[in-house]
Amino acid sequence: MNSSVESLLGQILLSRLKFLEVNHSVFPQSRFTQSQVVPSSRIIAFIRGRVCYEVENSDPIIAVPGTVLFVPQWTWRKWKVIGGKPAELTWAVFNVGEGLLSSVNAVVSQPECFDLLKAALLRMYDLWQASEEEQLILEGEMKAILARFFLSAPTDALTSITSSRHPEVNYAVGWLQDHYAVPSALFELQEQLTLNPDYFRNLFRRQMHFSPNQYLTMLRMRAARYFLSKREMSIKEVAESTGYPDALYFSRTYRKFWKRAPSEDRG
Question: Does residue 168 sit in helix, strand or coil?
Answer without folding.
Answer: helix
